[in-house]
Amino acid sequence: MNSDRLRAGEIERYLTTRLVGRQIFYRDSVGSTNEEAFDLAVGGCPEGTCVVAETQSLGRGRLKRKWHSPYGKNIYLSCVLRPALRPSEVYPLTFISCLAAFDTVSSVGIEPRLKWPNDVLTSDGRKVCGTLLEISAYPDVVRFVVVGVGLNVNMGLDDMEEEIRNRATSLFLETKKRFERAHICGMLLNNLEKYYDIALNRGVGEICRLWEERAGVRGKYMEITQADRVYRGVSQGVAADGALLLLSENGTITRVIAGDVSL
Ligand code: BT5
Question: For 82-96, what is each residue's pLDDT tens digit?
């Protein structure tokens, strides 16, 4: 199974989508699949176009953090979407990738947890997947969105750098089974389209509702760190635009739209 490849033809065998993944660019090595997808989007590629890679030398998280991308072990995927949304409505699309990964992880028998805004963890708090939404927009309309997903599939402890060894995991580490990445990737893309369709047909507010339901955050005490401050309070759930609502001790409700949650 170590020799499995993510090639488009392999992934297509598992696709049931009409849009997402109908064109897949397979790369052995890239800087970042998000960057490649961004360039393809600027060049006018069709909606649903994806880039997958065996490794990334500059895989990125939020705030220029590094996404560790050992060769041939995991899924590094980016998908171009062109939703007819206003820039202010686009943030909840982060949740479609988290929900898609959540369902994919569940389907192999692992119980996942969602962590606001962009992580999928296992029940002991280890990160199995991170997602990164990048946007190009005019003042009044979205031009395109790149949805990036890093899902750890066959990565073992030896494949991990020190920085993440205590906080990351993979489908393999959780189940002691190796997985065919093309199969996992196909399921992920099918799920991505399922949630994208919900966002388009029922509105992004419905995506926020589904995310909140799966995450079970309502009523939980949370601390959210941003570069220069910490928000503390009891979660009142997620607003229709994706902001996390926190009730602080003095009774005010704060809308938080970025940051890291301490669990
Ligand atoms: C994320 O950022 O979690 C978003 C990760 C998105 C990665 C995908 S891969 C395909 C596409 N192309 C890209 O260049 N990016 C996307 P953030 O919430 O900021 O979390 C980053 C933190 O996660 C790091 O600082 C590490 O602590 C941890 N981390 C890095 N690599 C990891 C890995 N492979 N597994 C688990 N945790 C990791």
Answer: 999 999 999 999 999
